[in-house]
Amino acid sequence: MTTDSHTHRLSTLCVHAGTYRDQATGGACSPIFTSTAYAVPNPADENLYPRCFNTPNQQVINRKLAALERGESAIVFGSGMAAISTFLLAHLKAGEHAIFQNDLYGGSMQLIGQELPRLGVQVSWGANVAEFAAAVRPETRLIYVESPSNPLLHCVDLAALAALGKRHGVLTVIDNTFATPINQNPIALGIDAVIHSATKYLNGHSDVNAGVVVASAETVNRVLASAVSFGGMLDANACSQLERGLKTLALRVQRHNENAGRLARFLAAHPAVARVNYPGLPEHPDHAIAARQMRGFGGMLSFELHQPKQVDRLLSRLRLVMPALSLGGVESLICVPSRSSHRTMTPAERQRAGISDGLLRVSVGIEDADDLLADFAAALSME
Fold it and tell me: Dihedral sign, CA of 180, 84, 67, 159?
């Protein structure tokens, strides 16, 4: 197996970190270990079993993501929600309190709003570090954010959040899916734990569901203790596909950044568009925060039309950009969050989160940017 070095740059780590070097063949790629039964004792001196999150293909992903996020340890899951729910349930119990950003991914909002209170966990919401600080109580155990957030692309000052957490002895956690470790490394800014829906940019090809947690060895071991009981592991073949996707992550994210920046500027100047949410735009309310803590502004944006009733017309006129759920793949996708990622929320909850019925979210792919602009220009045309 390779020896990972945190001195290597991100593009190099994408390719080389974590690779399992097969001594028998010397192959450049990690072999796929499909076994669910392993001899005891064995050369690794471990009780290997997929549900224990310790098989060779799982460990490849763990090492690679720990290196990319500059963390001590990592654990890969069968979905982003498996990673999120296992992390929260491993750290929260009845009578304790947690603070959450008020515009998270809809699946996270449903978990937090429905499941945590049912288990006796107290929940508070906030939009920024000042509001999180005001919500801290003696029984507060963690603060959980997304930055940039889904789907409004709000950004939280991560260094200030980390300082708040350390001041109160509260764990700070971020869903870093939109940013990816190429654009943002929260652990380097003092955040305690990073979560990804690896289904999105980390895999990047819309063909694997996965999630990952990166943190200190102590924190990951605590998550692992619950994960073994909950059983949300990722199988060997999916791990292999995810490893292959990660090797091109840096290249893909560079193109996502470039294309999204161009599309955001195009939409912001279009007379049919009322508002564009993209942290790379100087007029974005959190642009200064994003510029301070991100190396690139990402491939996600959202926008609203002056005439929200034209949403369906726009969707029907797109020819290259696909109306579809999910995000982070090589192809450009568009969706209406109120009908998709946030559909399980009540209208009042969506209003609180700033999710209007006319909001459109775009996952900007790696196609030629001129073709993407032409597709939107034709779809937005009143002709």
Answer: positive
Q: Name the residue among 8, 360, 75 with its Cα closest to residue 221.
A: 75
What pLDDT, in 10s, does the model give residues 178-200?
999 999 999 999 999 999 999 99
The beta strands (E) that lie in 69-118 are given as 73-77, 97-101
The stretch 274-287 carries a mean pLDDT of: 98
- 0.90 surpassed by pTM: yes
Say which of 20, 63, 64, 105 is annotated catalytic. Answer: 105
- The first and second tokens of residue 263, run together, are 């599309």
Tell me the CA distances in angstroms from 49 to 13, 29, 220, one per residue in order.
27, 22, 18
Q: Which two tokens stand for residue 167?
A: 């001041």
CA angle 252, 253, 256 (to 5 degrees): 90
Report whether pLDDT(241) > 60. yes
∠ Cα 278 280 283 (to 5°): 75
Q: Using CA atoms, how far apart are residues 339 and 347, in angstroms rounded to an integer?
A: 11
- The 211-215 sheet, strands edge to edge: 73-77, 211-215, 193-196, 171-175, 140-146, 97-101, 122-126
Give all strands (DSSP E) within the chain, no chain letters: 73-77, 97-101, 122-126, 140-146, 171-175, 193-196, 211-215, 273-277, 300-305, 322-323, 333-335, 359-363
262 near 299, Cβ under 8 Å? no
- In 3D space, the residue among 68, 74, 125, 83 whose CA is nearest the CA of residue 100 turns out to be 125
**Between 356 and 177, the higher pLDDT residue:** 177
Nearest to 97 by CA among 54, 127, 136: 136
Which of 175, 192, 286, 375 is catalytic? The answer is 175
Q: How far apart are CA 50 and CA 62, in angstroms?
A: 13
Judge whether 312 counts as a catalytic residue.
no
Query: How far is residue 383's CA from residue 367's CA, in Å, rounded to a whole number?
Result: 25
**Which of these is catalytic: 200, 252, 350, 361?**
200
pLDDT tens profile 96-132: 999 999 989 989 999 999 999 999 999 999 999 999 9
Q: Are 60 and 239 in contact (CB under 8 A)?
A: yes
**Active site (annotated) includes residue 200:** yes
Cis geometry, peptide bond prior to residue 43 (ω within 30 degrees of 0): no
* 105 catalytic per annotation: yes
